From TrEMBL:
Alphabetized InterPro entries for the sequence: Chloroperoxidase, Chloroperoxidase-like_sf
Species whose genome carries this gene: Pleurotus ostreatus (strain PC15) (Oyster mushroom)
Gene this protein is translated from: HTP2
Gene3D superfamilies found in the cross-reference section: Chloroperoxidase-like
Domain Heme haloperoxidase family profile: 34-240
Full protein name: Heme-thiolate peroxidase
Molecular function terms from GO: metal ion binding; peroxidase activity
C-alpha cells in the first residue's frame, strides 16, 4: 500500500505530466554559442553532481542559479538542450522527482541527496556513506577519477561503449569501493549505465564519443561550440545502448 506522502507525489507527478504536455510547444534548434552562451556558475549558484544538468544551467536552458526549477523548465530544458524525446524527457523529469521524494520545484543541490538520483560508484565523484543525506555541498568532479576514466580510452581519441564498460567494471571492483561503507543497488547501477548511454547517444553516435568533448563536459560542464541536438534521443535508443554497456561489463567480468 502507498503511504499518504507517496500518493501525494504520484498525484502531483500525474498532474505535472498533463500540465507539461499541454503547455509544450516545439522550439527551433538553438545555437548554444549565440542564444545559450556558456556562463560559468558563481559561488552563489547551486549545482548538482550531474554534469548534464549543470551544463543546462550554465547555458541557460535551466535557471542559471540552479534554484526553483519547475517540472516544465526541466522537461523543456532536456528537450531543447539535449534533443530528448517526449517520453524520455517525461521519464527523467518525473522519475527524478519520484526518486528524490519531493514535488516541484527543486534545486540542483537537491540532486545531491544520497540514493535518490545520486549514486555511489560514480565515474566522476568519490563514494560517500549511505547515512549522509547531503554530502556534496561541493559538487565539482574528482580530477583523479576523471583521469582514470579518460585513460580507459582505447585510442585516446574517443570513449567507446567497450571503454565505458571497462571503466564501470574497474570502478565497481576498486578496493576503495569494496572497502567503503557504500552501496550500489540494481536501480542505481542501471542509472549509472543509463547516464553514459545518454552521453554516448546525445554527443556521439551511440557507439563512441569524443574524448576532447568529454574533458570539457566533465571538467567545465560545458556544451560544444555551436551546439544544437543533431537527432532525437529516445527511450528505446538509450535503453539499447545501456544494455550493450551491461553486456560488455558481464563479458569483462567473466574474463
Amino acid at each position: 500500500m502507498f503511504t499518504r506522502s507517496a500518493k501525494f507525489v504520484v498525484v502531483a507527478i500525474l498532474l505535472g505530466v498533463l500540465t507539461t504536455v499541454r503547455s509544450f510547444a516545439p522550439q527551433a534548434p538553438l545555437i548554444a554559442s549565440v542564444q545559450h552562451p556558456y556562463v560559468p556558475p558563481t559561488t552563489d549558484d547551486d549545482r548538482s553532481p550531474c554534469p548534464a544538468l549543470n551544463a543546462l544551467a550554465n547555458h541557460g536552458y535551466l535557471p542559471h542559479d540552479g534554484r526553483h526549477i519547475t517540472h516544465s523548465q526541466l522537461f523543456h530544458g532536456l528537450i531543447d538542450g539535449f534533443g530528448l524525446s517526449y517520453p524520455l524527457a517525461t521519464l527523467l523529469t518525473f522519475g527524478g522527482y519520484t526518486l528524490l521524494r519531493q514535488v516541484p520545484p527543486l534545486s540542483l543541490l537537491d540532486i545531491s541527496r544520497v540514493n535518490g538520483v545520486e549514486h555511489n560508484c560514480s565515474l566522476a565523484h568519490n563514494d560517500i556513506p549511505w547515512d549522509h543525506e547531503y554530502p556534496r555541498l561541493h559538487v565539482t568532479a574528482d580530477v583523479c577519477l576523471l583521469n582514470k576514466l579518460f585513460a580507459d580510452s582505447s585510442d585516446q581519441r574517443t570513449l567507446s561503449i567497450e571503454d565505458v564498460a571497462r571503466a564501470r567494471v574497474r570502478r565497481e571492483s576498486s578496493p576503495e569501493y569494496k572497502n567503503a561503507n557504500v552501496t550500489l543497488d540494481a536501480l542505481h547501477a542501471e542509472i549509472a549505465r543509463g547516464e553514459m548511454a545518454l552521453v554516448l547517444g546525445i554527443f556521439g553516435d551511440s557507439n563512441e564519443v569524443s574524448l576532447d568533448f568529454l574533458k570539457r563536459f566533465f571538467l567545465n560542464e560545458q556544451l560544444p561550440d555551436n551546439w544544437h541536438p543533431r537527432a532525437t534521443q529516445g527511450l528505446v535508443k538509450t535503453a539499447r545502448t545501456a544494455r550493450k554497456i551491461r553486456a560488455h561489463m558481464d563479458s569483462l567480468r567473466k574474463q
